[in-house]
Design goal:
Layout: H1 11-20, E1 64-67, E2 70-72, E3 79-86, E4 94-101, H2 105-114, E5 122-125, E6 136-151, E7 154-166, E8 172-184, H3 190-216
Parallel strand pairs: 1-5, 1-6, 2-6, 3-6
Antiparallel strand pairs: 3-4, 6-7, 7-8
Amino acid sequence: MKRPSQPRTGPAAAFLFALCAMPGLAQAVTETEPLDMVYQQAPEPEQRPNGPPVETLRVPQGCKLYLPAIEDARNNQVYVGNLTLMMPTVHATPRAVESLRSGDAGMWTRNALLSTQRYGYQPIVGAPAAATGARQVSAVVALRLAHAWSAGLNLVSHVVLKVSYRLPGGEVATRLYHGMGTRTNWASGNGEFMSVLNLGMEEAVRSMATDAAALCEGKPLPAPAPAVAQ
């Protein structure tokens, strides 16, 4: 009796195996499944060998950060990013693009602002009972952008917060805070996209906390950062 032939192995079989094992093909995020928007703060930045000194952000003791309104004001509230699936070739070309459906970005932003406790703030969701003065800040916050995307072997994010401060004299000053995040993309998974979005949010919130610290000390709000030429 003729024995059944054994499956052959070779370059073609190896290529097929690699194709099936690509993380992008097992992508967990789909256009119908929203990304679970869970905020987790990043560790405090540490001093690197031979690197520039890392400034520790601390606000005046007892400074209250009032948040009368926290709004999801993105132009596109349906999606929060995209994943580009590449062909497994030397000169990779895009094979497909999948959009990432957004979860509750408003609650995500709220939790990020409450995390300012790490800097010494007392964050309070609501308006202050009296006019804003020293050791307290009133800020209306709007999430203007939250987007993550794949770039080669990395994931990148961009988060923008629009913050309107109520100054002691009753005037309103508005600032835009940009945060960028990047990390290695291992499996194109939900947690990885959420992690890089949290890095961008962390940077934007820290910039806001730095400016608000001046108001806590009764100082003028720092001038807005100059626009970057495109």
